[in-house]
Design a protein that fits this description.
Helices cover about 0% and strands about 55% of the residues. With about 120 residues, it is mostly beta strands. The model has no long low-confidence stretch (mean pLDDT about 95).
């Protein structure tokens, strides 16, 4: 299993970023996917989850209405569209899959929201 995140960067408050996570090594379309984030000095927290065919999504209260998770099963990729970013969204963002009871993580992509 390999998960590779990209798309992070430095953005001003109110700005937008789109994160991508390219997956390989497993049948992507069979598994729900999630995005987590971890700010410096804080625990990793769940941001959003999408079912295997994308029919259902769930979000942390802190990002509802601003973030959208989506997936393209033909490209084995999950996305996180982040709008109206706030300084408190600053963190390393990770995608995640649970397969055969094991959690798999990518290397993460840094998102910094600052003026």
């Amino acid at each position: 299993v390999q998960l590779v995140e990209s798309g992070g960067g430095l953005v001003q408050p109110g700005g937008s970023l789109r994160l991508s996570c390219a997956a390989s090594g497993f049948t992507f379309s069979s598994y729900p996917m999630s995005w987590y984030r971890q700010a410096t000095g804080k625990e990793r927290e769940l941001v959003a989850t999408i079912t295997n065919v994308g029919g259902s999504t769930n979000y942390a209260d802190s990002v509802k209405g601003r973030f959208t998770i989506s997936r393209d099963n033909a490209k084995n990729t999950v996305y996180l569209q982040m709008n109206n970013l706030k300084p408190e969204d600053t963190a390393v963002y990770y995608c995640n899959v649970i397969r055969w009871g094991l959690l798999y993580w990518g290397q993460g992509t840094q998102v910094t929201v600052s003026s």
